[in-house]
Amino acid sequence: MEELLNQYMGKKIDVSVGTSAVYRGEVIDVRNGILYLRDDEHRVAHIAIGKIGVVYECNESATRPGFIV
Questions:
Q1: pTM of this prediction?
Q2: Residue 51 three-state SS
Q3: Partners of 38 in the β-ladder
Q4: I need a labelling partner for 7 at 20 to 30 A (CA). Which of 26, 53, 54, 63 fits?
């Protein structure tokens, strides 16, 4: 799993740990069984790799202000 997470270094991902806990952020480090994930508010989450069930790469779609007709 660490090798897989290292492939996402610098990318934004969603990480599922359990049935209802999902974390989104940029992968900043993976070492010693811990995933370091930075969110949009620059807080860092430390997630035990052994608890991760699913990893998704986030789709960064551009948003446009205003109404869509």
A1: 0.81
A2: helix
A3: 26, 44
A4: 63
What stretch of H or E contains 2? helix 2-6
Give the span between the Cα atoms of 16 and 58, in whole angstroms.
Answer: 13
Evaluate whether 47 touches 37 at the Cβ level (below 8 Å): yes
Please answer whether residues 15 and 53 qualify as being in contact, where contact means their C-beta atoms are separated by less than 8 angstroms: no
What is the distance between the alpha carbons of residues 30 and 9, in angstroms, rounded to a whole number?
8
Per-residue pLDDT of the chain (69 residues), as tens digits, is: 999 999 999 999 999 998 788 999 999 999 999 999 999 999 999 999 999 999 999 886 656 566 655
What residue has token string 């069930």? 53
Measured CA to CA, the distance from residue 64 to residue 36 in angstroms comes to 31
